[in-house]
Amino acid sequence: MKEAAEKSDFSAEHYGMDYIQFSIDQLGMDLENFPAPSKLTADQSYRIRVIVDEKVREQESYTSIEDHRAVLLSLIDILLAAVYDQLTNSNELNEANSHINIHRISGTLAYFVEYNGVQQMLRSFYRRSCTYPYYRNKDIALACVKQVLHRMSSEDRKQWIQQQLIHTYEAFKRTDCAVLNHYFIKDFIRYVELGLNEETLLQCIKEVEKLLPEIHQASLGFGEESLLQKLLQDIMGQEESDSTDSDDYESSEEDSEESDSDNESVGTDTDANPNENVLEKLMNLKLSG
């Protein structure tokens, strides 16, 4: 049901236009320089303590989890959605769409998915991040995965995870998604404090790093390669048509212009076509990327 819904919801036009715009200006984003994560505020730290204290006497229920791997795959899935939201919202909470972004991108939160493995989780993130948010591009998804890998390799990984979870909690708390705080986010906050299995977490992260190139290059399963190819061909065809019309217009006035050209100095440079760089980039696009 989940993948069928994704295929139905996928917009070829939206994805295609974002693909082209990204090749021109990266949709206005700097994917090489993520904003430094802000520290937890006093209010956020207090909220985390309150959430943890509600179940602190039940710590064993978190440490004795039989399958930490399944829990951690869901956690990583939510972290990826939170990072995607922050990257596309200038590292800020957007009250209008942050809850929508995180809820829709995360299969854990949207469909209560329990992932069988890293590959399934990563593929879900790529498909959903190219279907539901305002900005849809595989390179944005790639940047988000790399950011999670980077933060998970640092010694303060637990604090960073809590920052993403509290961001999600605050995005949900005054919306229709508030119920997800009760059933998911608060329990993940407690799990990170009371029962996080860091050894298994790092194993999952290594698998993510290993599988990332394959997932990034693979098709989303929406037939997007042929759609992009057709879109680019249409753009090139339109440009050629415009160029032909321009040539016809110029040739009709050639005689009258020749009489004036003798009295004008001839420059060695001509005005650059403002679309030249854009078209050159489009011609060099690698659709598999």
Walk me through this protein's architecture.
By secondary structure, the chain is mainly α. It has 15 helices and no strands. The longest helix is centred in the last third of the chain and has 29 residues, at 224-252.
Task: State the assembly state of the protein chains.
Answer: single chain
What is the mean predicted local confidence, pLDDT? 87
Structural class: mainly alpha
Largest sheet: none
Shape, principal axes of CA atoms: elongated
Termini gap: 27 Å
Low-confidence stretches: 263-276
Secondary-structure element order, N to C: HHHHHHHHHHHHHHH
Task: Report the C-alpha radius of gyration, rounded.
Answer: 25 Å
Proportion in helices: 55-70%
Number of strands: 0
Provide a count of the helices: 15
* Strand residue percentage: under 5%
Organism: Anopheles merus
Family: Belongs to the SHQ1 family.
Biased composition (Polar residues): 266-276
Protein name: Protein SHQ1 homolog
Tags for this model:
289 residues, mainly alpha, unfolded protein binding, Protein SHQ1 homolog, Shq1
List the helices and strands and how they pair.
Elements: H1 2-9, H2 12-25, H3 42-53, H4 59-63, H5 68-88, H6 98-105, H7 107-111, H8 118-129, H9 138-152, H10 157-172, H11 178-194, H12 198-217, H13 224-252, H14 254-261, H15 276-283
